[in-house]
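Hi W., the fe (iii) ion complex you wanted:
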Amino acid sequence: MDEFRADLHCHTTCSDGTLSPSEVIDLAVQTGLKGLSITDHDSIDAYTTIMPYAAKSGIELISGVEFSTVHKGESIHVLAYSFSVNSPSISSLCSDHQKRRERRASRIIELLNKEGFEIAEEDIYGSRETKRGIGRPHIAQAMIDKGYVKDIKEAFRSYLGEGKKCYARDDLPSTEETLACIHEANGLAILAHPHLINNNGVLKGLLSMPFDGLECFYARFNISQNKRWTAIADLRGWLMTGGSDFHGDIKPMISLGSSWTREETFRKLQERHLINNR
Ligand code: AMP
Ligand code: ZN
Ligand code: FE
Ligand code: FE
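Structure:
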């Protein structure tokens, strides 16, 4: 692959991906990617060790994270890039999220137990090295392992999805306060997978917020969808990023590098990353 490709959206074992950060770097090399950002849910734990490894592997890595936020009752994902990996505001937001995730996991276990499912903390944390990074897919996996559901889709559709029987409401930070935190860290804020936002009023509100870009290229995008989002980004002078949302075996249909960011855009993000991580 001669064309420059940078996949700016993927997950590791620091959240709900199945490959470790170094395994993702190895896979990026095998796939022929030149640039990468690891964007775990609400965690920058991957960056405590991975920057020297990426550099040695010849992968141009920029800092990233995918924040969970809420706007008008809808769950909205915000990608942050290029911030300093030592930023106090990003670290503190991640740490609040990790506490929230642990509390939520305990509440979901209680709800599952009430439904008669024998699921305990050790079933969901399993072989994880720490309690950090826990998410609903880990709980879904424990339900599959115990034979309660046949796959992740069924676990979300019947129990863990928003508004379902064992869904625990969450007090997520608002999209606005998350944008303010990213900008305090001199990072760039991108609205993730906008095609998943079904409510037009919510989308309109988001598009009037101070985002720096839109995730215009995504694993399952088709050409007409790409055009819709690039036109919106173009109108606002926003960055047009792209990535696969790779999670490893837990989402086997999505491969690393199946969607990417153009070199020109990548260089703008990288320039900011280098300033913030000198
Ligand atoms: P959490 O961040 O713990 O709330 O979990 C969100 C994760 O669950 C994201 O990676 C989603 O891709 C995944 N997810 C959400 N809904 C579904 C679904 N219906 N089927 C499979 N995975 C899902
Ligand atoms: Zn995920
Ligand atoms: Fe997401
Ligand atoms: Fe994601």
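Strands lie at 6-7, 35-36, 60-61, 64-71, 74-81, 188-191, 213-218, 239-243.

W.
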